[in-house]
Amino acid sequence: MKQLHIKPLSVAQYFIDKCDATAGDSITHLKIQKLLYYVQAWGLVLMNKSFFEEKFQAWAHGPVLPSVYHNLKKYRFNNLASVSIGDSSEIQSSEKEIIDKVWDTYGELSAKHLEQLTHSEAPWIEARGGIPSDALCTNPLDDDKIITCYKAQYEAAE
Do 137 and 60 meet the contact criterion of CB atoms below 8 Å apart? Predict the structure, then answer.
């Protein structure tokens, strides 16, 4: 599997750039975390590439990249549609294909809907290992389990 090692904040900025704050579009830290997770998942399945070096952890609100959390926690639950946190110009066009597919598939869903979705999927559930859903957990999500889960979804949709 190829490692791309894209900066997560660059992809987060790309999602923020897709929002139109003047039109009332909204994107929160929680939503960005889930969108980043789906970029990683679908990159693994469709491109056999790991977008991010850092592993997602099975936090109470779903998969989280701790570095992104620490960069965005100051914004709490506020809309980030007009915030600048990274450089989206670093992203290559082949990578943007996956990122755009994730946006087209999940971008209209609310942060809470995305949280519930990740809570219903095997990679997060298995990483939690039976820990109550609201308890602190920093267990990493396993890439092989992510691939198995989303490859099955992809094949079922075909």
Answer: yes
Q: Are 23 and 131 in contact (CB under 8 A)?
A: no
Span 71-106, pLDDT tens digits? 999 998 899 988 899 999 999 998 999 999 999 999
- What distance in Å separates the CA atoms of residue 83 and residue 55, rounded to the nearest whole number? 25
Q: Give residue 40's identity as a one-letter amino acid code.
A: Q
Contact assessment for residue 137 and residue 59, using Cβ atoms and an 8 Å cutoff: yes
**Degrees to nearest 5, angle at CA 148 with 144 and 149:** 120
**Contact criterion met (CB below 8 Å) for 65 and 36:** yes
Q: How far apart are CA 96 and CA 108, in angstroms?
A: 18
DSSP letters spanning 127-138 = HHTT--TTS---
The answer to whether the beta carbons of residues 37 and 62 sit under 8 Å apart is: yes
Q: What are phi and psi of 88, to 5 degrees?
A: -75, -10
> Quick one: pLDDT at residue 1?
72
Residue 54 and residue 52: Cα distance in Å, rounded? Answer: 5
Distance between CA atoms of residues 111 and 109, nearest Å? 7
The residue ranges of DSSP E strands in the chain, in sequence order, are: 2-3, 49-50, 57-59, 62-64
